[in-house]
Structures are given as structure tokens and as C-alpha cells.
Amino acid sequence: MKTLKSILLLLLFVPLIKPAPPTQQDLRTISDYGTDNFEETLYSHDYEDKYLDGKNIKERELNEKTLQLQKDESVTLLPKKENEEMPTCLLCVCLLGSVYCEEVDIDVVPPLPKESSYLYARFNRITKLTAKDFADIPNLRRLDFTGNLIKDIEDSTFSKLSLLEELSLADNQLMKLPVLPSTLTLFNAKDNKIKSRGIKANTFKKLSNLTYLYLDHNELESVPLNLPESLRVIHLQFNNITSITDDTFCKANDTRYIRDRVEEIRLEGNPIILGAYPNSFICLKRLPIGAYI
Questions:
Q1: pTM to 2 decimal places
Q2: 35: part of which helix (H) or strand (E)?
Q3: What is the pLDDT at residue 286?
Q4: Position 283 pLDDT exceeds 50
Q5: Which of 40, 51, 80, 215 fits a 20 to 30 Å CA distance from 20?
Q6: What angle do CA 256, 260, 262 make, to 5 degrees?
């Protein structure tokens, strides 16, 4: 009986017993490792790992694609071999009708855009010029082949260039001149190996617009014949000219003739004493530059 009462009393007081409040250490532990925060922390770590792995994978794929693209581009830009020619405007610089092919180590005239007006092909290894080089380029106004290795030029090379005004063949290996277009205003063939027999008697006769003529530092034995009236500057210095006549610059049969356009004639560096030919300059406003005694 007493035992039964004891059990009943114990049952009555059990609900009234409250658990002791958690200590501060316990609170910190729950906060750090509570269910919600713990799952969130795990999710965060998992997300970062997957994100970084995914990012690395994407970066690797991107790098692989970039490398492949670079390889493809490098193959595309390589010069074509065998009979295929590299497009001129990749090899040279094309800008508003001007083509710049300077110091690109070419040995022939490259195919030019049909609208080309100016070609600068200086300091290369070109050895020959032909009519085919300019057959379909009728608008050319200026050609500059200074500093090449040109030995031969076909006579018909410039025949279709009806607009050509300036032609420079300086510093090459020419021994003779081709037929020149009558439209030229400037012709430069200095620093070659041209002899007098390499210039035909009528080479300059019809060049009625020619203003500047540069034939210095060659192997000429005489002044070229039939120099046009339009000339202002004539450079013949450092050749092998040994004599001139009264008809070289003037007209022996017309003492009243004045060649008034000529501003400069250079003959220094030639084995000629200009003072021995006083009647050869009576039509000039200025005496030629050179030795007189």
C-alpha cells in the first residue's frame, strides 16, 4: 500500500520538474552545429566546390577553343605554297588606291588591285618588269621601284599606262631604257649602269610633259638626244660624258632661241671641261653646274 502511494506521488511531481537552462557554452555549440546552420554550411561548401570545378572546366574548355581558333587562324594566314599566290593586300599595305610593298622581299611585281593608282615597291629583289605586270591596271599614276635588282624591262611594259606621271627606277642594274609613256612628268633612273647606246634617240622626244629627269651616277658617254622643252631639272652628274655640242641644249641654227624653262643642269663629276664649249649654253638662263677649267 505504501509503495503504491509513493508511485502515485512521484507521477504527480514529474511534470513539474523543468530541465536546467543551457549554459553559454552549450548555446555556442548549438549555434555552430545546429541542424539548419550545419546543413547551410555543408551546402555552401558543396556549392563552392561544384562552382569552382565547373568554372575550371569552362575555363579549360574556353582555353582549348581559343588555342584551336589560333591554330586555325595561323594556318589561314600562312603564305600559300606551290602555284597559289598570297593576296597582295595581306603581303603589302593597300590604302585608298595606294599599294605599299616596300622591303617585303618580293622578286616579281605582285598582282595589284585594279583600282590601284600608286605602287611603292622599293627595296625588294625584283629583277624584271613585263607588260603583264600592269596590263589590267590602267589608272596607275606613280610607280616606284627604287632599290631593286631590275636588269630588264620589256619595251611594252608601260605602253597601256596612259595616266602614268612618275616613274622611278633608281638604284637598279639597268643598262638600257625601255619605251617611256609620253605622260611622264618625272623620270628617275639614277644609280644604274646605263650607257649612251642604251638610250634610243627618240626616247625623250615625245615626252612633252617631262619636268624632272634624273640620270646621274650612270655610265653615259654623252648627253641624251632630243631632250624635251618642258624640262626644268636635268641631272647628269657622275657619268662618263666627255663632250657636248651646240645642239645638246640649244639650237645651233637659231641664235635667238631661249630655253627658258631649265632651272638646273648638273654635269659635275664628268670628264668634261665645260669652258671648252661656250656656244653650247647661249640659250640657257643659267650655266650648267660642273668644271669650266
A1: 0.71
A2: helix 35-77
A3: 93
A4: yes
A5: 40
A6: 130
